Amino acid sequence: MTLCTPDRTTTRPRVQRPHSPPGGPRRFRIATVDVSASIAVFLIALPLSLGIALATGAPLQAGLVAAAAGGLVAGRFGGSPLQVSGPAAGLTVVTAELIRLYGWRTTCAITVLAGLAQIGLSALRVARSALAVSPAIVHGMLGGIGVTIALAQLHIVLGGTPQSSAVDNALGLPAQLAHVQPAAFAISALTVAALLCWPRLPGRAGKFLRKAPAALVAVAGATAVAVLAGLTVPRVDLPSWSSHALPGLPEGPVLGIAAGVLTITLVTSVQSLLSAVAVDKLVAARPDHGLGIPRTALDRELAGQGMANVVSGALGGLPVAGVAVRSVANVTAGAVSRASTMLHGLWIVLAALLLVPVIDLIPLPALAALVMVVGIQMVSITHIRTITRHREVVVYAVTLTGVVLIGILEGVALGIGVAVAVALHRLTRTRITREERDGRQLLRVRGQLTFLAVPRLSRALHQLPPGSDVVVELDGSFMDHAAYETLSDWTAGHLAHGGKVETTGPAGTRIAEPSPGAAPHSCCRPWTPWHNHQCGEPPAEPAEADGAGADRPAPGLKLASGIGKFQRNTAPLVRDELARLAREGQRPSQLFLTCADSRLVTSMITSSGPGDLFTVRNVGNLVPLPGEESGDDSVAAAIEYAVEVLRVESITVCGHSGCGAMQALMNAGPDDPTSPLRRWLRHGRPSLERMASRRHSWARIAGRLPADAVEQLCLTNVVQQLEHLRAYESVARRLADGSLTLHGMYFHVGEAQAYLLGGADEPHGHDAHDSHGSYDPYDEVFTRVMPTGPAADPAPGPEADPKAGPEAGPADERSARLETAHVS
């Protein structure tokens, strides 16, 4: 395959706005798959919008207005191209209460004000802070709303009328069960049965039939039965659009209206942002990995939701939020752009104008049963299991109960209070135990080591016999400076009295401790550069030479001096480990492919030791496509050996700032003379083309655009070389069976800061990505790796464990915190 040299103008794209694709604006095109996806979403949205409007007590047209505004306005201006917005079940309770207190026209005005508040919040760029709310609080809030909805709609299912609160609905349920309306109950039962059974139809015919949405089938089937059987049940009654109620000036107490605006703003914003993050995960999990689909820009999404709420409220519609069910249907149907969301809004408008006679045939009990099932599904068993594993079930239960019994804002406030109390309890709960085992003193510390635990830690340490052999086992993810100083001072004193101390993690992994007698600020550190560094020794005499060279060291003197220091200081420490590796052979867990730049010291920036990394270095950290090396198969051979023979578990491609190879690649012209360097750099041309392509979003680093075109190319090159790796048969086979992962990394030399590829926003930072930064082929986001606890302190002295690789020590990447960032 011949790669054409890109034009110079394409290799230096100008800086774009954060949400603009490189190369200028795109022409609006509608893909066929977007049309089919929009129809699937429309068929789900139509009955749900009517059902939610019925549950709130609003005019039924209000649900259609909100669905149209969500599709057309939020779909066009939002930051999540595949998220579908509209009236959400999570807003049912809030809206119903506002209508009861202030009336419909004031509720529409409150919706407009909430939309303006969302636009203001997006301008302040606070969208990401909504993701800091504990998942237990969010799921507890949604679960409480679901319980409230289910209790209210159950009365309509049984042929009655719901009360104003969940408590009243629960207390009135026995009386309602004694006066069931047979026709309404029959229609509702048929709707529920269709909703539950339709997705489980077996066989080939069932697979074909399941393409129709269960919600549409359930409501259409119930409507057909009611019409054909002549059942007397309440039906949808869409009044004339000429009498449609529009918003008026807010009437009521100022504090009450302000609380309503705040509630609508918070619920719609949090639900929309969490749904957008979930949509990103669904898109990345598709077989095409979301090729060409940009990830969510959270602040832009918040602004889009605000615009939709302003339009919906102004036109007499319900509050709008991003909704999970319709968004999942959109992604599953294969949508590739925001055209599908906008088209679904267009179909809603056409249905509201042309299908009124058909809509008027729908029985209200069928819509109530549909919304009741949706409410029950909001109490997710999967979420409860996850929350239980994280020991936050108390937060979930308190939030759910508070929402049901008191209200949404009050329930969320209770949940936040309990979550803070639980966090403080965990922070202060530290268990310290001591026992003797095989002549050794074992001191176990369970929990976080903060200054609050220092008195107990100090007392336990000083109760250990002087001169004894001690193992200190730390089982926690955090140690503050006070605890670290206490442990370090005691260790130094114990070693000075002839004792032995070994500090380990929870799995027995050794943590390096300060060497005895080392000066607190000794200049001798493993990371100290060997060149021009004497470490307290007198400088070496310059080699004798004639003339101008008399004052210069002889060639190789610095290198020989460094080797001598290794033999004297380091070799005794690593000799046993290297002897073991010589006997057993190498078994590295990672292939680390990086640039040949002299400023990149792989063992330093990865805290690795002998036997940890299988390292491949070349100019530009390039991975030639299979068959493109033209006689030099060194990189391909290294990849094959690492993957097939050494069976590494991961491959990392590491680029760096100020890469001379990337600078040379950008400056190369088509008429430049051929040289070995230019022939090698042709493997980087796909990175140039990717950076100039309109199909890919620009890479971002820690929430910002790259500083210049060279840094942009350095980042893009990491992403492109990871794609080249996937073209290797051995790599693709290991990726398919799940035994190999790919990672991208960028090292900023001037900042001494590492960044990992793929830190997409996830709800609350829990299970969105693992802490290893697993590679997503089209997630061009680099996130900063943050030091925690003792890892932020100066490195230990020469007595540090030589095997303290990536799987050991307080700098363990598994405990690193990632600063989340998003690409537009």
UniProtKB/TrEMBL annotation:
It holds the Pfam family Sulfate_transp. Keywords: Membrane, Transmembrane, Transmembrane helix. Gene3D superfamilies: Carbonic anhydrase. Residues 1-27, 761-824 are annotated as: Disordered. InterPro entries: Carbonic_anhydrase, Carbonic_anhydrase_sf, SLC26A/SulP_dom, SLC26A/SulP_fam. It is a multi-pass membrane protein. The chain crosses the membrane at residues 35-55, 102-124, 136-158, 178-201, 213-234, 254-279, 335-356, 362-381, 393-424. Its main location: membrane. Residues 34-398 form the SLC26A/SulP transporter domain. Belongs to the beta-class carbonic anhydrase family. Catalyzes the reversible hydration of carbon dioxide to form bicarbonate. PANTHER family: SULFATE TRANSPORTER. This is SulP family inorganic anion transporter.
